[in-house]
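Apologies for my clumsy wording, but are you able to produce some protein sequence, whichever is easiest, and the tokens describing how it folds?
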Amino acid sequence: MNRMLNGMFKKTTSYMAMAGDLLRRKENSDEVTDSAEAVISDEKESAEKPSVPEGMFIKCPKCRSVVYTKDIEDNLHICPKCGHYHRIGAYERISMVVDEDTFEEWDSVMEHPNPLDYPGYSEKLELLRDEYQMDEAVVCGKGQILGQETVIAVMDARFMMASMGGVVGEKITRAIEKATALSLPVIIFTCSGGARMQEGMVSLMQMAKTSAALGLHAKAGLPYFTVVTDPTTGGVSASFATLGDVILAEPDALIGFAGQRVIEQTIGQKLPKGFQRAEFALEHGQIDMIVERKDLKQTLADLIVMHQPYEVVSNHTKETDGEA
């Protein structure tokens, strides 16, 4: 790391050419004015201040330590000082979990209506699509996890806090319906600030729509696994996030419906320490397992195999024995 940082904060010498030229002219004539000398002085003062490239360091929101960004990235976006799990984008999450070159994205571009004609909503969506190079707050598709084929949906908190609007609900519903048609399991990585207020009742309808699709998927005898990540709240937590046959969560993930402050004001009591965190949810039976990020890929692959029909597992075992 020391070699990488070596020379990173060198003072720039861009002002030297200008300074040298002006001073040479001053020696030979009176062409250099006071303003020109002021420019040299300002350039020199600015150049002597060390500059840090943007995005090179990041402050951990938990321990408040300033950490080299690459150290966070190399550690699966986990703070090397306190172990805090930083949020990650949908495509990066997919690259961590899905086998290379096996992911096929579905419904990557969809029409974005503005059902309430909410002022500035369409413009905001356009800005977010340009900034993050994604169509909406969820990415859906089909891929393999250690060779096990599955349908996967990953929500992205950077896009309007992964709030659930009509397009988010439609993409997830379509993915579940395709999984049912293809007889494939479904895995959804959830995170959300709740319903998207700019769409009103249309947003709330997605809770019922996604849940109904999962009901048909379950009726077909197919497994559904959720991975709850920070934060999963509101309408998402009250629908498909908590309907999994097996519910996993990342450490310290926030899981709940209403905010802690709202609940305390409503019931007039102080909530227990750690309330709405993954560890609290596990202790009280709301989730089945807390899985560290480094173990998610293997855990999900194992779950898919364990929940396959008996005949499939039996045939796989026989083929392996025969080769041996």
